[in-house]
Amino acid sequence: MPTRAKAVAFRDEIIVPTLKTIGLYSEAAAELLLGTALQESRLVYRKQLNGGPGRGLFQMEMATHDDIVKNYLNFRAKLKNSIQQLRFDIDGSAEKELTENDSYAAAMARIQYKRAPDALPVVGDVEGMAAYWKMYYNTPLGGGTVTQYISVWKSVMG
């Protein structure tokens, strides 16, 4: 499990600047993305364990990434351009970007949540963040649970 200091540094050095760069910053969004990364990868795993399809610290699947590009970003040129500017290699592999480029992965995770029909939970509502993550990121079919999210959050962030 990462330390609180490592989690705060990840939020402050990666998540917050990325969200500001793409114009989608809020404290709630930053908190939700931090919780997502903590739950999905413990800020350690860049490839899903046991050969699964999740990539990067947010463990996004390429199918989700590609759906975001095809059905959301392709209709929002300014947002798509701001996210493309985060890439290490514009013509390189999107899978490599998700796996190794934390800013790009954070931006794509934020867009996944942006597509959700409900408003983000309020800052400090760990249970609400966990339920939102489960509904819109891990999905009802995913292996994670609201209880796991809350447990990981509390063990790292207090």
Please explain how this structure is put together:
With 158 residues, the protein is mostly helical. It has helices at 4-21, 27-41, 62-71, 77-84, 94-100, 102-114, 126-138, 146-157, and strands at 54-55, 60-61. Strands 1-2 form a two-stranded antiparallel ribbon. Helix 1 (4-21) crosses helix 2 (27-41). The longest helix has 18 residues, at 4-21. The two termini are 13 Å apart.
List keywords for this structure.
globular, mainly alpha, two-stranded antiparallel sheet, Lysozyme, 158 residues, 8 helices
SSE topology:
Layout: H1 4-21, H2 27-41, E1 54-55, E2 60-61, H3 62-71, H4 77-84, H5 94-100, H6 102-114, H7 126-138, H8 146-157
Antiparallel strand pairs: 1-2
Helix pairs in contact: 1-2, 1-6, 2-7, 2-8, 5-6, 7-8
Summarize it:
The chain is mainly α and 158 residues long. The protein has helices spanning 4-21, 27-41, 62-71, 77-84, 94-100, 102-114, 126-138, 146-157; strands at residues 54-55, 60-61. Helix 2 crosses helix 8 and helix 5 (94-100) crosses helix 6.
Number of strands: 2
Mean pLDDT: 96
Structural class: mainly alpha
Radius of gyration computed on alpha carbons: 14 Å
Domain count, please report it: 1
Biggest sheet: strands side by side, in what order?
Answer: 1-2
CATH fold field value: Lysozyme
Main β-sheet description? 2 strands, antiparallel
Shape: globular
Approximately how much helix is present in the residues? 55-70%
Q: Which sequence of SSEs, written as H and E, runs from N to C?
A: HHEEHHHHHH
CATH uppermost class:
Mainly Alpha
The CATH architecture classification is Orthogonal Bundle
Distance between the termini: 13 Å
Please report the number of helical segments. Answer: 8
Uncertain regions spanning at least 5 consecutive residues? none
Q: What percent strand?
A: under 5%
